[in-house]
Design goal:
116 residues; alpha+beta; three-stranded antiparallel β-sheet; 4 helices; 5 strands; Endonuclease/exonuclease/phosphatase domain-containing protein
Length: 116
């Protein structure tokens, strides 16, 4: 993914389009996309990702679960020490349903993620 800069906005949306094309061309419903999206909550790529996800019925599962105010970070810059939440878990609508079902199973059975 390109870095979050105004000049890279078109390239970022094109990358999201390529991901969507892979999903569509492979006829799958439950998809989990994990990785560095360079889309820190509140910044331009985040807003692009949110709009694209809304249009495609994708969900940012980790942000949904933890919340944007959780102070979660996945990157600390060596240059200026800035902290960002760049690595995300995006799921399709069907993937989100399975994600919620797994959470419910864990909650009801008392399992911890270390035992899964």
């Amino acid at each position: 993914m390109p870095t979050d800069a105004p000049d890279n906005s078109v390239e970022f949306v094109n990358c999201l389009g390529e991901i969507d094309a892979i999903i569509e061309n492979n006829d799958v419903e439950a998809v989990y996309m994990l990785g560095d999206f360079n889309a820190h909550p509140g910044y331009p790529f985040w807003l692009e990702l949110q709009q694209y996800s809304l249009d495609k019925k994708w969900l940012c599962a980790d942000v949904e679960k933890l919340g944007t105010m959780s102070r979660t970070i996945t990157f600390i810059s060596d240059i200026d020490g800035s902290m960002r939440w760049l690595d995300l878990c995006i799921v399709t609508q069907a993937g989100g349903i399975l994600f919620q079902m797994l959470e419910l199973i864990v909650m009801c059975t008392g399992l911890t993620t270390s035992r899964l």
